[in-house]
Amino acid sequence: MSIDQNILRRVRARLTAGWRATQYCYRFANTLSFRLLGFALKLVLVLYFLFALIVLGLRYVVLPNIDAYKPAIERLASEALGNPVTLGEIDASWSGLRPRLAFDRLVVHDKAGNAALSLPQVSATLSWWSLVAGELRLHQLEILRPDLDVRRDSAGGLHVAGILLDNGKKGDGRGADWVLSQDEIVIRQGRVRWNDELRGAPELALDNVDFVLRNAWRHHRFALRATPPAGFAAPIDVRADFQHPAFAASISDPTRWTGQLYADVRDTDLTVWRSYVDYPVDMQQGSGSVRAWLDFDHARVANFTADVTLADVRTRLAPDLEPLSLSAVSGRISVQEELNRAVQDGRPTFGQNGHAIALTNFSLRTEDGLFLPQTTISERFVAARNGKPARTELQAKLLDLQTLASFAGRLPLPAEQRRMLADFAPRGVLREFSAQWQGSYPQLIGYSVKGQFEGLSMQPRAAIPAVPKSAAGPAQAAVPAIPGFENLTGRVDATERGGSLSLASVNTSLQMPAWFERGEMPFERLQLQANWAFQDKNQLLLDLQRLEFIQDGLTGTLVGKYQLPLSRQPGQSPGTVDVTGRIEHVALREVGRYLPVQTPEHLRQWLSGALAGGSARDLKLRLKGDLAHFPFLARNPSERARGEFSVSARIEDGVLNYAPGQFAADGTSPRWPLIDRIDGSIVFDRARMEIHADSARSAGATLSRVKAVIPELHAQNLMLEVDGDAAGPLQNLLRFTLDSPVAGWIGNFTDETRASGDARLALSLKLPLHRLEDAKVNGVLHFANNTVTLRSLLPPLAGVGGRLEFNEKGFGLQGVRASFLGGPTAVSGGTQRDGSIVVKAEGSLTADGIRKALSTPKTERSLQRISGGTRYVTTIRVRNKQPEITVESSMAGIALDFPAPLRKAAGESMPLRFDMTGLPSSDPAALRDEIRIALGSAISARYERRRDLAREADWKVVRGGIGVNVPAPQPDSGVIANVSMARLDIDAWRRVVASMAGTPQPADGSTRQTDSYGIGQYIEPEVLAARANELIIMDRKLDNVVVGASHQSDVWQANIDSEQASGYITWVESGYSGGLGRVTARLASLIIPKSAAGEVTELLDSQDSATQMPAIDIVAENFELFGKKFGQLELAARNARGPSGREWRINRLAISNPDGEFKASGRWYRKEGENISSLNYTLDIADAGRLLDRFGFANLLRGGKGKMTGEVSWKGMPFSLDIPTLGGNLQLDLAAGQFLKADANAAKLLGVLSLQSLPRRLVLDFRDVFSEGFAFDGVAATATISQGVAKTDNFKMRGVAATVLIDGSADIAQETQNLHVVVIPDFNVGAASVVYGLAVNPVIGVGTFLAQLFLREPLMRAFTFEYQVTGPWKDPVVNKLARRNQVPAPADGQPSAEPRG
Fold it and tell me: Which residues form the YhdP central domain (predicted)?
């Protein structure tokens, strides 16, 4: 209790002491404040009264007497401005409580005393702050119409009205300080002249200058409007708002100012201002309008904003940049600089501490076509300081990256931004885009990117792993690998921690060399939703929410996750994946494009080439696990748990190439036949690949139950196992052998084999893909009544049964039976132990079998000459890939009906041996062999052949020879026949050879056909050497003949020496079925004996000869016909198309000798089934007597020279006149001849020669008319021939003793005549001249001749004799006629006269 009371007392005492102290303090403060307040009140009252006294003194004492203070005012103004000032009149007034002074003609002088500024009118309102400042201060200074001189001296000093604003010297610049200390300065309607001695620029005068300056201690503002000279700009507007430190030593020092400057220049030419203003860039040209705001801080530009509308701008933004030429530019440009507030030394920093650049509603167009559409872009850079890294921010509403990249070389961008543009090479458009990063590219500490993009393209960039913080530098953020891409559209939101990406692109492509071997992956459509996040240990987790794409017809989707290292170290896993995908359709040949780069190279190459065609549908993909264990072998349960990989799809029309990249000998075909038209499935299960074909084809054969398996895809040595069955045409199954290495394994035995009919093949292949030469094969070919041709020139085997077994070591024939050339045969053999091949066939053949196997429209006639049957043995050997074929037969039982020497009866034996042996070839692209044939003891043949390895190439005879009774020759090239026989019928053999070799047959008029067996090249020699006692050629018999002939390209050339002909002959065979070609002969002699007359007739006596006669060009120097020497013969004729079809035209027929020359032309054609010949001829007679001697009519006539012409036609051959149908006309004119003594039938008036029947003739006998040796001066006559009857009415023969006239007819066919003969003796000269004048006129007939003669010479009638000659030519009847009583009236109207006597 006592303790509590003590405590209470202590508290009470302390409270009492505190209260007393408080009371004391209050009383002290109250006393002090009362005194201070009283003092202040007294001071205010004193100042008030003092101010009142001053105002009263000014108002009533000073201002009324202001002129008295003019010197003091000038002194004060001079001290304030620092320059002498003189005043004119002064007017004083009040402006409120402030005194106001108005000055006229105020002049400010420079240091030299010159008037620097003349002000017509100045108004100044004084400020009461003058009392406080101790110097003149004005509330307002107003100047009207000043003329101001502003000058910058050569040292850089600025003088305004002679006042140096600031030159750095102590005490100077007070005028500028004083100006900035006044409340307001106003200039109206002034004029300013600017002279720049430092730049040496011409004077610049500004008119209509309005200027306002307002100062409020630290804060200053001014506005200036002025009109520059014409051509510079429109009126300019310049404003400023700035402040300076509170207690600056000089307020006019610009390095201490902070504020903003505004300028508005319209319609200006930027070029003219270069003399007065230093542009921040090299401005070479430009015009337009500029409105700019400039924020400055201690002479440093802190912010610059300009609204520009310019055109035709030429500038260079930095000395090391490319020139920039702009046809138009508009928008707002803002540049802001981060300033270090701690440093205010006035030195510019040019953005070293940070900056911001913004383009608002900005667009431009360059002269080279680049266009930046209107956009808003901002960029901000904060420099590194206080341990914080540099930071860069970029924002854009719309940005064309390609345009920006194109401008990069012309813009003053930082080096790291230039490098970024060069590395990424961006193109496309960004919208609502923002990007921010910390650090310097490419070492970034943090970053963020967000925005939309359209048509975006960029080069690929490798991943950058995170770098932890260290003493050497700050931490760096991880950056994922960025694939290159083209034309992407979508949205991105990414930071150093992760991000998201959304794509909706069409016609785009990705460049992903880190993922796929083919770097570029084009897509018709690509849609993507994906997120990613950076995890510990430099891991990136990619969450593929959905990926949909269409690429080259391939449509697919993919979802899943993929965790991968940002920087993969050797031995490190490529990542962990859990992906499921589905593809609707993919072309199998494109599978290689989609294999990841982790696929083993040998597997990639095989899959890319092996899947050579077709498509896979409904493809399903499942991939899960650590890719370090791909393809996730499952040899045990623990390995199976590592992961999962499977791909399955349906195959449609697929193509499988066992050995891609490996080719057959031709260098283009695959080494193994392709399996195509595959319909089935393909499955990749971990490391195993299986292809199951429900149906397929290979080499044209249908396949079934085909299974292709690669058990271990990861193995370095891939093994492909193929099993299946094939069914189809046997030729297609043989093609598999030909088109695969099997052909080499069986010694190319089936290279020339041809087959028909269906067969079955069971095949099993094991192909080590790295060493296909070690391939294993097992196959069985089952024959089913097939037809097989083993080798060319060998007839086919029909009804083949049995089987052919083969493997990589060879083949064997098991139970093969067949029918060969009409008889049964057994075939056995195969590959022997030494690697050679022996196949033996033994059986019999028949002529019918030969005809059925070998008969064609070309060989049918020849094969009809064979009959009977015989046995044979055939052996085929292949050793060292060289085939040997031997055929042996006695030929007993076979009859041959060919011309000698190939003629035999069935019972005769003519041993046949046929050997075909392979020869080594120096050309690896060709095969060679030799054929030897021996038939009996007389005939032998030997051929060397060549066959190019090109597909379907046939054997060609390189050289060969046929010998008959002599050894077979061996020429360097071509085929030669050497024949020595007693009788050789070339025509018979030519007809046989033509039928075998395909020579056209005229019987059916068919066109030339191909020699399917190539027999012609064996039996149709190019050179023929023949010696024969008797040679039949072109239906001519030649005796004791030696002939050498060559044959090339349907042309026969021969030198012949025989009793009938000697010279050079060429025969060009017809190129069509309608003729026999062309015969050209140049002969020294041509003799046709009488014994050949029937042969000539038989040769030409054919209904179709007009179209079958060859064209002829014959020149014979010595032509004899039936023992008559005709002289030189020229005959040219050809087949041609005429009005009635084809005809044989005789272009030239000429027979010449010293006694005369016969020339003719004509034609031979068929009409209505009959041959018709016509001839136009001219016979020039040099000696008619000797000419008749040549024709066999000796001693009939001596001399005689003239011409006989005419035109005749007949039904029949051109060289066989048909007298009953002969028609035409002739003209005869002969002179100076004499008839000789002849027998009773020798005197001739007319002789007609026929080349077919030359002995025929027509004879007239005049022995009872005139005596032997009758000489004539001329013979003139014309005659017509119709149906073999010649008629004339004007035959006139003039002689020395008489004139003979003949008219009448002669039947040439019947050799009879009916002629009227008139003989007029020559008894005086006058009568003879009349007779001669009438006789030489060939037009006048006998009757008219006599009428005119008797009218002129009546006495001639009495001495004229007339005869009638009738009867046969051999025994004519001549009757003398009595004189006529009357003479026919003359045709010309002269009076008639009675005949005398």
Answer: 34-1374
Report yes or no: 757 and 751 within 8 Å, Cβ to Cβ.
no
Low-confidence winner among 121-125, 218-222, 449-453 (lowest mean pLDDT): 121-125
Q: Tell me the C-alpha distance between 757 and 749, whole Å.
A: 20
Structure tokens at 594: 């989609």
Residue the block writes with tokens 């006592």? 2
pLDDT of residue 613: 86
Give the lowest-confidence range in 251-265, 493-507, 1060-1074: 1060-1074
Element (H, E) at 3: helix 2-57
Neighbours of 1177 (CB within 10 A): 17
Cross-strand partners of 912: 889, 935
> Which helix (H) or strand (E) covers residue 177, if one does?
helix 174-179
- pLDDT(410) > 60: yes
List the structure tokens of 76: 């004060």
Count Cβ atoms within 10 A of the Cβ of residue 257 and give its class: 0-12 exposed, 13-18 middle, 19 or more buried: buried
1215 touches 1250 (CB < 8 A): no
Q: What is the DSSP letter of 54?
A: H
Instruction: Tell me which residue of 311, 144, 277, 260 sits closest to 211, measured CA to CA.
Output: 144
**pLDDT classification of 580: cutoffs 50, 70, 90:** very high
Tokens of 171: 């005490």
Backbone angles phi, psi at 608, to 5 degrees: -65, -35
DSSP-H helix ranges across 1304-1369: 1325-1335, 1342-1352
CA angle 350, 354, 360 (to 5 degrees): 90
Label residue 387 exposed, middle or buried (CB < 10 Å: 0-12, 13-18, 19+): exposed
Helices (H), 777-930: 847-854, 860-863
Q: Is the pLDDT of residue 350 over 70?
A: no
Place of tokens 């609707």: 584
Determine the Cα–Cα distance for residues 791 and 789; give it in Å rounded to an integer: 6
pLDDT in tens, 224-255: 899 998 888 889 999 999 888 877 777 777 77
Query: For 1373-1386, how does the pLDDT look when each residue is reduced to its tens digit (9 = 90+)?
Result: 888 887 654 444 44
For residue 1072, pLDDT over 70 is answered with: no
Q: How far is CA 295 from its chain centroid?
A: 65
pTM of the model: 0.50
Tokens representing residue 766 in the block: 């094991």
Give CA separation, 853 vs 797, 820, 906, in Å. 9, 9, 21
- Number of other CB atoms surrounding residue 1035 within 10 Å: 12
Query: How crowded is residue 16: how many other Cβ atoms within 10 Å of its Cβ?
Result: 9
Dihedral of CA 961/967/969/970: which sign? positive
What residues form DSSP beta bridges with 561?
543, 578
Would you tell me how many other CB atoms lie within 10 Å of the CB of residue 159?
21
Pair of tokens at residue 279: 């542009």
Q: With contact defined as beta carbons under 8 Å apart, do 1067 and 1056 qualify?
A: no
Residue 593 reports pLDDT greater than 60: yes
Interval 612-639: pLDDT, tens? 888 888 889 898 988 888 778 777 777 7
Give kind and range of the element (H or E) at residue 26: helix 2-57
Maximum alpha-carbon separation in the chain? 234
Q: List, in sequence order, every residue forming a beta bridge with 1308; answer none if it has no partner.
A: none
Residue 1107 is predicted with a pLDDT of 52
Task: Express each pLDDT in 99-139 by its tens digit.
Answer: 887 878 888 887 777 777 778 888 888 887 877 777 778 88
* Cα–Cα distance measured from residue 200 to residue 215, given in angstroms and rounded to the nearest whole number: 33
Q: Are strands 184-196 and 147-152 parallel, antiparallel or unpaired?
A: parallel
Distance CA(371)–CA(366), nearest Å, equals 6
Backbone angles phi, psi at 1077, to 5 degrees: 90, -140
Rounded mean pLDDT of 841-868? 79
Whether residue 466 is predicted with pLDDT greater than 50 in this model: the reply is: yes
